[in-house]
DNA sequence: CCTGTGATTGTTTTC
DNA sequence: GAAAACAATCACAGG
């Protein structure tokens, strides 16, 4: 059951701005790792494709892979997520109490 | 307790 | 250098 038709319901607002004091950016996404590898392949199989094209093709290819293929990327994403946990932790520690920051 | 929301992440190409 | 399509995410917070 699709919790809610969330997603990009049409809100092409520019990039986001930070809102947290130390903004513990989250971890990367599987697509990021996948793109890192496919970007070369996609551009190679699609010579001459413009920005919009390659971008789309990349996405199509992403899902074109099998879950197993995404596995390595998901794994990286999961690993990266852990990385974020670290930031979040530091953010948490500092956000909460703090030993000395107000000089 | 459960939910969804928002914020974020990195790539590519083009000028 | 910046901007948009492309996709995943998923930790955080609130009623």
From TrEMBL:
Residue ranges, annotated region (Disordered): 1-28, 68-103
UniProt keyword list: DNA-binding, Nucleus
Entry-linked SMART domains: HMG (SM00398)
Pfam families reported for this sequence: HMG_box
DNA-binding region of this protein: 24-92
GO molecular function annotations of the record: DNA binding
Origin: domain of life: Eukaryota
Domain annotation HMG box: ranges: 24-92
Assigned GO CC terms: nucleus
Compositional bias (Basic residues): 1-18
Matches recorded under PROSITE patterns: HMG_BOX_2 (PS50118)
Composition-biased stretches (Basic and acidic residues): 68-89
Biological function: DNA-binding protein that induces severe bending of DNA. Required for DNA-binding by the FACT complex, a general chromatin factor that acts to reorganize nucleosomes. The FACT complex is involved in multiple processes that require DNA as a template such as mRNA elongation, DNA replication and DNA repair. Also augments the fidelity of transcription by RNA polymerase III independently of any role in the FACT complex.
Family under the similarity heading: Belongs to the NHP6 family.
The protein's name in its UniProt record: Non-histone chromosomal protein 6
